[in-house]
Amino acid sequence: MTRYHRATQLRRALQLFAATVTDESVMMEIADVYPRYAVGKAYKTGDVFSHGVNPDGETQLWKVLQGHVSAAEWPPAASPSLYKKIGYAENGLPIWTQPLIPSEAYNKGDIVMHKGKKWKSDIDANVWEPGVAGWTEIIT
Questions:
Q1: Do 76 and 115 sit in the same domain of this protein?
Q2: Angle at 19 between CA 88 and CA 68, to 5 degrees
């Protein structure tokens, strides 16, 4: 078996694992594992795929809201009845995820949602979970 075939099988195994993940913050940590959006593909309700990047320049994930065959005239960003952005709360704020590398750390003033609460980072290079250290809960 060639390296290409082993790498292809490993990627497929990771995609099968990713399909079992239901926690959006975990999904975002492994966003590059999900299959890419394709036009002309039959999607089922609940399918997850990657398409484009979010405002932080990271891979954007989308969840299919209703089964359909994708079409060029219904891209994810322009079709809210078909797709939902993953990684953002209903209020539009990003959902906190654990930074895995230094460039993913939060900066002072960043605002995120975590466990149903809104948090503001008090420090630069913040890798702490909101509620543990380095964050102030925003009470509205």
A1: no
A2: 75
**94 belongs to a structural domain:** no
What span, in angstroms and rounded, lies between the C-alpha atoms of 137 and 109? Answer: 12
Task: Look at residue 20 and tell me if it is in a domain.
Answer: yes
Over the stretch 79-138, which tens digit does the pLDDT of each residue have? 999 999 998 888 889 989 888 788 889 999 999 999 999 999 999 999 999 999 999 999
Q: What share of the chain is helix, strand, coil (3-state, %, to 5)?
A: 20, 30, 50
Same domain, 11 and 67: yes
* pLDDT level of residue 22 (50, 70, 90 thresholds): confident
81-89 long-range contacts (CB < 8 A, ≥24 apart) are 85/54, 85/60, 85/61, 86/24, 86/27, 86/28, 86/48, 86/60, 86/61, 86/62, 87/24, 87/25, 87/27, 87/28, 87/54, 87/60, 87/61, 89/113
Same domain, 56 and 17: yes
* 87 φ/ψ angles, rounded to the nearest 5 degrees: 105, 0
| Domain of 17, in residue numbers | 3-86
